[in-house]
Amino acid sequence: MHRLPLSPNTAEVPQDRQIATSFAYKLKAAGHVAYFAGGCVRDRLLGKEPKDYDIATSATPAQVTRLFPGSNEVGAHFGVVIAKDHGVMVEIATFRTDGSYKDGRRPEAVTFSTPEEDAQRRDFTINGLFEDPETGEVIDFTGGQADLEAGVLRAIGNPADRFAEDSLRLMRAVRFATTLGFEIEAGTWAAMQDHAAGLQRISPERIRDEFSRIIVLPARRRGLELLVDSGLIQYFLPEVLPLIGCDQPPEWHPEGDVYIHTRIMLEMLGDDASLELCLAVLLHDIAKPPTRTYDEEAGRIRFNGHDALGATMAEEILRRLKYPNHVIEDVAFMVSRHMQFMNVQQMRTSKLKRFMATPTFPQELELHRVDCASSNGFTDNLEYLIEKREEFAAEPLIPKPLVTGHDLIALGVPSGPRFSEILEAVQTEQLEGRLTEREQALEWVKGLVGAS
Fold first, then answer.
1. pLDDT interval class at 317 (50, 70, 90)
2. Nearest in space to 93 (alpha carbons), one of 123, 69, 63, 120
3. Is the separation of the CB atoms in 177 and 226 below 8 Å?
4. Residue 434 in contact with residue 348, Cβ under 8 Å?
5. How high is the mean pLDDT of the chain?
6. Partners of residue 301 on adjacent β-strands
7. What gap in Å lies between CA 231 and CA 124, rounded to an integer?
8. S-S: 309 plus which of 73, 115, 194, 287, CB 3.0-4.6 Å?
9. What is the rounded distance in angstroms from the CA atom of residue 318 to the CA atom of residue 380?
10. Share of the chain above pLDDT 90, in %
């Protein structure tokens, strides 16, 4: 066992750490061992503020609940109790050894054990660290501190065993390596490739949650590459694989194939890009392989209809992964429209305003920016839209209607397709600036109705 004191931290102690520390002190005062465990220790050693604190203890769940009345025995069968104070929740888990993992997700049973044995059941060495809250001592049974210093992600013990126990650890390995910028140790990497098919035992929801956390990271390009190179992506998003080697017209895409193009786009996105935007970038050209043709007369590659088919494929992929409806709808919509940006300078004012008025437009504009910047470098449509956005900023893109359905009823217009056509025609004239007043618009409608 290797011990290394934490560097002194003179900053004000955050409330969640204060509360977790008080819980640990209460456990120790009752005669139990109590350590901070896992991610909170790792993050502190990396100079990051932990998102939450977990405690590992020698106290049994029954002893923990007696010490903390009102705590939640969410996983008492596995030795886990949630204690709360001032809205801060701390997971308190009894030191344990896990039994067999028949389903590749969770142990059949657990046996309460020692800190040394508890550390050995965890996934990666950097997550197998303990810290004594009282002394600041880091207690390391797995070599995690050395791996933290070296920037290495290493499975504890036999990597094949760790991934066979819980196959979601395959996705977690990619997430940790991407988040921290760590290299995956060779034996761990080989085991990931060998056990990639284990993801088939994991629910789409759990895979989705890990994938979502990966794809929004600043280093999302590397995350995608690790998912592809490890073979993991084959088991939850195989549609990405045909992008590799799918060549494109060099005059429009000098950067290379669709996979290269997509990776560059992901890398160019800002660090705070939304989940919807990251997914739309990943999937915007997902239908290029099935729509690829070669136009002999023009002597060039074409992908006719890849935007429409891509929207359909994006919806199917995201439904398969159980994404919420609002995410699916926004992503599919952005994919369906990404080719329309080439026509914005030819759009009438009314059509352009409608195009720009959609809730997803700011994200679509960013998708268009990285789409061009990663390929042909053309910026004329982007600059045009930015100018128009400033020009139109003084008033709503879609102003309050000058004429309503009640007005049409009063004019004797019967319900039916003509009804909505007239309203749209009035709005078009309004957006074009040819109708600006209500009375003027009503007279225009009277003339339209009379002429028909």
1. very high
2. 63
3. yes
4. no
5. 92
6. 294
7. 20
8. 287
9. 32
10. 84
User: What's residue 414's pLDDT?
Assistant: 86
Name the pTM for this structure. Answer: 0.90
Query: Over 70: is that where the pLDDT of 106 sits?
Result: no
Coil vs helix vs strand at 437: coil
Distance, CA of 176 to CA of 153 (rounded, Å): 8
Rounded-to-5 percentages of helix, strand, coil across the chain: 55, 10, 35
Q: Residue 64's closest CA among 41, 33, 36? A: 33
For 196-215, letters b (16+ CB in 10 Å) and e give bebbeebeeeebbebbbbbb
Relative to beta strand 96-98, strand 110-112 is antiparallel
Torsion of CA 244, 249, 253, 256, to 10 degrees: 30
**Inter-residue contact 265 to 253 (CB < 8 Å):** no
Q: Are 77 and 83 in contact (CB under 8 A)?
A: no
Cβ-Cβ contacts under 8 Å for 17 (sequence gap 6 or more): 50, 53
CA atoms within 13 A on the CB side of 376: 12
Span 11-40, pLDDT tens digits: 578 899 999 999 999 999 999 999 999 999
Give dist(CA 441, CA 429) in Å, integer: 9
Residues sharing a CB contact under 8 Å with residue 388, sequence separation 6 or more, in sequence order: 352, 356
Domains and CATH numbers, the chain: 2-150 (3.30.460.10), 152-236 (1.10.110.30), 239-394 (1.10.3210), 405-451 (no CATH)
pLDDT band at 112 (very low <50, low <70, confident <90, very high): confident
Quick one: which H or E segment has residue 301?
A: strand 300-302
Query: pLDDT tens for residues 176-197?
Result: 999 999 999 999 999 999 999 9
Q: Where are the alpha helices (DSSP H) in 97-158?
A: 115-120, 144-150
Banded pLDDT at 7 (limits 50, 70, 90): very low
Per-residue pLDDT reduced to its tens digit, 139-165: 999 999 999 999 999 999 999 999 999
User: What length is written for the chain?
Assistant: 452
